[in-house]
Amino acid sequence: MTSASKTDLGMSFKSSELPCPCEPVIKGDARVAAISAASILAKVTRDREMEQFDRCYPGYGLARHKGYPTALHLEALVRLGVTPQHRRSFAPVRRLLITNIDPS
């Protein structure tokens, strides 16, 4: 088992911190079929969740941009504010929360 830093993994943990043996695979989605399949499943699941959130939070265009930081999404954040589903670590969301911009 290899221990990799978060820089190597692009993640916020080291493989040695996981409760099971593992080995990081650089560019794993291109090299390992199971990783590629998991990536596809995660994307499809995320897209479906964004379509559901779009019905709960109209005006953000979530079904269209799937949560990616498009101009439409960023404008909606300023206009409508932050939803409970927005990631607080996403820089535009964090800035809005810090500056307490009133969307009205």
Structure in words:
The chain is an all-alpha fold. It contains six helices and no strands. The longest helix has 24 residues. The radius of gyration is 18 Å and the shape is extended. It starts with 5 loop residues before the first helix and ends in a 5-residue tail after the last helix. The N terminus is likely disordered.
Show the helix and strand layout:
Elements: H1 6-9, H2 28-31, H3 33-56, H4 62-65, H5 71-80, H6 91-99
Give keywords.
104 residues; mainly alpha; 6 helices; extended; disordered N terminus
- What share of residues is helical? 40-55%
Detail the poorly predicted runs.
1-10
Distance between the ends? 53 Å
Shape: extended
**Main sheet characteristics:** none
Task: Compose a concise summary of this entry.
The protein is an all-alpha fold and 104 residues long. The chain contains six helices and no strands.
